[in-house]
Design brief:
81% helix; 393 residues; mainly alpha; Growth Hormone, Chain: A
Length: 393
């Protein structure tokens, strides 16, 4: 597999270009996760159950998982700048269609477009740091680009939920359409021409999947992210029905969750490069403890609020921790591994949201929390297995 060169001189404003790519990942991940904080009003207005509304998360996530490796393979000869701009145009259209959706079918069609954008933008963005800045700055640029994913996961969603609480869920989607349009304009202004310089083929994915370290990284990703979204997709009904939190507090609590998550992201970013397995073990243990504590003492507004902040602190480092694991597992195949990681991450989102919806409808929020606990424990065991010497199969 060819490795991209570093034509940083092609960018007149390289750090603005890096920021633009980070804003693209922020916009698409926030759009993907937007229904999490708006699930109850969306379900009410469209006349569906909260469990069925979970499809608005699982459908785009599943498509993103499919498109991530396909984009890396199929986009080999196309200028990366053109791909990013085209996907941002689709993102504007998807958010606009969501804001206008009269029924569930229309909404699902709009979310299909989000899935295409998610898989494409995240997969392409992962390999752009080496194209935009000088080699000695690639680490910082990569952290900023993937910081857009982390910030969206822990901050974009609560801000959108707060907007939805104040103005309505349709206005939240309209706001994301406007933000996506502004990010598109920024791309047109500062992203340089990025002709294809790398070639990824199907056999490269097969080679990476033969690595025990990569297998364990993908397995831990599937377990942790599935467990998280089995419960967090339905965090609003969980807080309202289990902890007795009033609807007017949801946006503020999710903002607190996001702030704690940003702290967790920076903490993991500092520690993971030196002790990645131990760091991911700590994340898994934190999610396990949070789910069990919610089941035991989460039946009061104050307790539920405190536990939500701990949840944000634990989950905030997932994106950077697991991406560090994958990059260290195969430093010479970052583009292929990035696509595999994006695929696994989004399959986990889809499965977690879908299974969580079924559990919520049949067992209530307690079933979702038990799923999070069991899968977090399984991820912890996988991390322990990673510490033991192993053979490549």
């Amino acid at each position: 597999m060819q490795t991209p060169s570093s034509p940083a001189a092609a960018a007149n404003h390289p750090w603005l270009a890096v920021l633009a790519v980070a804003l693209a990942t922020f916009s698409v991940v926030t759009t993907e996760m937007l229904p999490v904080g708006l699930l109850t009003p969306i379900a009410h207005d469209l006349g569906i159950s909260s469990g069925s509304a979970g499809l608005l998360i699982s459908v785009p996530a599943l498509l993103a998982a499919v498109f991530a490796p396909l984009v890396v393979i199929a986009a080999g000869g196309i200028n990366r700048r053109r791909i990013l701009c085209g996907l941002l145009i689709l993102l504007v259209a998807a958010n606009s269609a969501s804001a206008l959706a009269p029924n569930m079918h229309w909404m699902l069609a709009a979310r299909l477009l989000v899935g295409v954008c998610m898989g494409g933008i995240w997969a392409i963005a992962g390999g752009l740091a080496t194209r935009l800045v000088l080699p000695q700055r690639v680490g910082l640029a990569t952290a900023i680009i993937f910081g857009g994913v982390a910030a969206a996961s822990v901050l974009g969603v609560p801000l959108a939920a707060w907007t939805g609480e104040l103005l309505g869920w349709r206005q939240a989607f309209a706001g994301m359409a406007l933000l996506s349009a502004l990010v598109l304009l920024l791309h047109l202004a500062v992203i340089p021409s990025l002709p294809a310089v790398a070639s990824v083929q199907l056999r490269h994915f097969a080679e990476q999947l033969g690595s025990r370290r990569v297998q364990l990284g993908l397995g831990v990703t599937l377990l942790l992210v599935t467990g998280h979204f089995a419960a967090f997709t339905f965090i609003r009904p969980l807080l309202e029905s289990v902890s007795g939190v009033g609807a007017s507090w949801i946006g503020g609590l999710l903002l607190g969750y996001g702030t704690a998550g940003i702290a967790g992201n920076f903490l993991v970013g500092l520690v993971a490069p030196r002790h990645v397995t131990a760091t991911v073990m700590a994340i898994a243990a934190g999610l396990l403890a949070t789910a069990l504590l919610f089941l035991c003492i989460g039946h009061a507004p104050l307790n539920g609020s405190i536990l939500l902040l701990l949840w944000g602190l634990a989950y905030g480092g997932v994106s950077v921790g697991l991406m560090t694991w994958m990059m260290q597992a195969a430093p010479n195949a970052i583009e292929a591994n990035s696509a595999l990681y994006v695929g696994a991450f989004n399959v986990a989102i889809a499965v977690g949201a879908w299974a969580g919806g079924r559990l919520l409808d049949q067992l209530g929020p307690a079933g979702n929390l038990w799923a999070t606990a069991v899968l977090s424990m399984a991820a912890l065991l996988c991390c322990i297995a990673a510490l033991a010497p192993g053979r490549h199969r």
